[in-house]
Specification:
The chain is an alpha/beta fold. 31% of the residues lie in helices and 19% in strands. It is globular, with a radius of gyration of 32 Å.
């Protein structure tokens, strides 16, 4: 029996494969707790292939078979012969010619995106603003690692992504991934055949090495970011002429060419440089893709504010009759009685079907007109209920309408001052107001990102992600939008690698650029902060937030700071044959890691958003960490007693978390396991799923 790839089945596969939460959420856990049965967490992120396999298992379970892994435990693996039988003729010939975009290093970039990470995020409370209440995040570290770490908690939850990646001008590329290669390596690999069977040739003019490095860097990050977008989510990417053609092809592959929305042209300057003899560059581009192109999704551009009248007549329409209620139609005609008969002009014939009195600028009684109208009677009645104003200003009796509010226009692909978006020059002037000196190179104006934010419904709650956050403009844009829309609930997640300003002058930069860097270093020195762009961006967000709170204290202008670091857990391996009893309960947590470090590491693994409310409670000298009012309750203190267990059980937690060193013996674990079964009413299986140990 072959699998019938119906539209419905295919949509299910796409649903899971594109990053929506599986009902069988994959956990990286192993059972090492003996009779207790609770699972000990490995704290390693799931790979992209893990999610894909789970999606495949949902629609083709017969393509999986049980095998024993290296530990002798049963696991499910794909049976390719069974899968090929299910798919039948729907398998592509690997040797067939195909269309695609290939470069040296692409396969390594794919692997880089798929590999799990053993990194974690450590909270930096002292560098945060309003830690306890904010729902915004600022994350320091390599964005590829961060995106992988966020996948469990934010898969399918991000409504909008905006990024302003390096343009690859030769001076702005700071990401050095493992798949980059030197010139000799590039030359060797350039003549190899890749995994798709395509022979790659080096072309110094059109496919120089730096293009390959840039494509690999961005490709791996976009592949992971794709899974974070909601089904109606959108991504905006700023770019210039250097890589726009390559970026479009990469995005066509990652997001699907059919999900391409458009290329917006942003007027970055009104005074382009005169250096070029061929073309003076005034615009940069913003590429836009939607996770899934939904016909009902409408982008909002500029709101119409014009109150100019719009005629109700249309020459191409059929003749119809509209009845207008008395007292609802305004006019500038003098007081009089209009007799039934023919009115209008040579182009439009209008017939008044009964006498009607005009007095004090209004038609006193109901009356009917016969003409070629745009509207039906039903639409007219509904419009009047919604506050639409009808006017018949002159004795031609030609009616017009004015709406009190207009739906925003769908945006054009030109972004300039006419839609309220500023230029780079304006962004530079804003820096002077905030810092007295220019401290950022080429920051985007806040109005650009605000304009893009307003494309989607700004009054709804949603998450905005920027993983090349640079100067922090996206954070300020989100705060400004929440200020302008009462009750705005947008939250931001910013990610930025901590580029060291002291290393920057070693590159070839202009005198003006060096002055900006010197200004940034001087500012950070005065604040006693490290000389990197993260510290500068956080200071910009603080200052912008202070200004917003003066008039809008209700706006969330805080942010939790998190930093990428190595795993909280030691890399310790024991030989089962020589394992001693005292080693069984040895603490596997690295020295110097705090309870908060462990808590956030586990929140990542369990798929809990990092911005949820946190509070602490002390019971018999033991500290409980309560996440989102019981989504997770953790205790990492030694010697947990019955009173602590009772306090946790009263919270009716979804999950509980302990540290291995909390227990002196296996009997202590078993007792706690049984206590939760009794006090929370959990079944044996529920207890195994809900109790976690690190």
């Amino acid at each position: 029996m072959r699998l019938s790839i119906t539209k419905e089945i295919f949509s299910i596969f796409v649903y899971f494969a594109r990053g929506n939460e599986s009902p069988l959420m994959i956990r990286k856990e192993t059972n090492t707790t003996g009779n207790m049965g609770a699972k000990k967490m490995k704290l390693t992120s799931a790979s992209h292939s893990d999610f894909m396999l789970e999606a495949l298992r949902q629609i083709a379970p017969s393509a999986f078979t049980e095998v024993r892994d290296e530990h002798g435990e049963l696991t499910h693996k794909v049976d390719f012969e069974a899968l090929k039988e299910l798919l039948g003729d729907n398998i592509s010939n690997s040797n067939a010619e195909r269309f695609g975009f290939y470069w040296v290093g692409k396969q390594d970039a794919k692997r880089a995106a798929d590999e799990p990470t053993r990194k974690t995020l450590r909270p930096i409370v002292e560098g945060s603003v309003d830690w306890d209440n904010t729902q915004n995040l600022y994350i320091e570290g390599d964005n590829l690692e961060v995106l992988k770490l966020l996948r469990n908690s934010y898969m399918g939850k991000v409504k909008m992504i905006y990024i302003d990646p390096p343009y690859n001008t030769g001076k702005d590329f700071i990401y050095r991934d493992n798949f980059t290669m030197n010139q000799d390596e590039y030359g060797r690999f350039a003549s190899d055949v890749n995994a798709e069977g395509n022979r790659l040739h080096a072309n110094e003019k059109t496919h120089a090495r730096y293009h390959s490095d840039w494509c690999s860097m961005l490709y791996s990050r976009l592949k992971v970011a794709h899974s974070l977008l909601s089904q109606d989510g959108v991504i905006f990417i700023s770019i210039d002429d250097n890589e726009v053609h390559h970026l479009r092809m990469i995005c066509d592959e990652v997001f699907g060419a059919s999900n391409f929305v458009g290329t917006f042209n942003w007027v970055k300057t009104e005074t382009p440089e005169n250096l070029s003899k061929k073309c003076r560059q005034m615009v940069e581009y913003v590429l836009c893709y939607q996770k899934q192109m939904l016909s009902q999704t409408r982008f909002n551009g500029v709101s119409k504010s014009s109150k100019s009248s719009n005629g109700l007549l249309n020459q191409s329409n059929a003749v119809g009759v509209l009845t207008f209620p008395g007292g609802k139609v305004l006019t500038s005609m003098q007081d009089q009685v209009l007799k039934a008969g023919s009115y209008g002009t040579g182009k439009y014939v209008i017939e008044l079907l009964q006498d009607v009195e005009v007095k004090d600028g209004v038609f006193v009684s109901d009356f009917s007109l016969k003409a070629k109208f745009k509207w039906s009677q039903l639409y007219l009645d509904q419009s009047l209920k919604e506050g639409v104003i009808i006017r018949i200003p002159r004795n031609t009796l030609s009616p017009s309408y004015e709406k009190p509010e207009y739906a925003p226009e769908v945006p054009t692909n030109l972004i300039n001052a006419k839609v309220g978006v500023e230029t780079n020059e304006n962004a530079g002037e804003y820096q002077l107001k905030l810092f007295d000196k220019k401290v950022f190179s080429f920051p985007k104006p806040c109005s650009l990102i605000q304009y893009l934010l307003n494309f989607i419904k700004p009054e709804e709650e949603f998450i905005v992600l920027d993983f090349f956050s640079g100067s922090g403009t996206t954070a300020e844009a989100v705060m400004n939008m929440n200020k302008e829309h009462i009750g705005g609930k947008a939250k931001f997640i910013l990610v930025q690698i901590a580029e060291d300003f002291e290393q920057t002058p070693k590159r070839e930069i202009s005198k003006a650029q060096k002055e900006i860097i010197d200004n940034a270093v001087a500012l950070l020195k005065s604040l006693d902060k490290p000389f990197n762009i993260c510290e500068l961006a956080k200071e910009r967000i603080r200052r912008a937030g202070d200004e917003i709170r003066k008039e809008h204290p209700e706006v969330d202008t805080g942010f939790r700071v998190l930093r990428v670091d190595t795993s909280n857990m030691k890399e310790v391996y024991f030989d089962p044959a020589t394992l001693e009893k005292d080693q069984l309960f040895a603490d596997s947590v690295k020295k110097g890691r705090s309870d908060l470090d462990l808590l956030f590491g586990c929140m990542l693994d369990l798929g809990i958003e990092l911005s949820v409310p946190l509070r602490q409670k002390e019971v018999t000298g033991k500290r409980l960490h309560i996440v989102n009012e019981g989504a997770l309750v953790a205790c990492f203190d030694v010697g947990i007693d019955l009173e602590v267990i009772c306090a946790i059980a009263e919270l009716n937690p979804l999950r509980v978390l302990f540290r291995e060193s909390c227990f002196a013996a296996d009997e202590d674990k078993l007792n706690i396991y049984e206590q939760f079964k009794q006090r929370c009413g959990w079944s044996t299986e529920e207890s195994r799923r809900r109790i976690h140990i690190i």
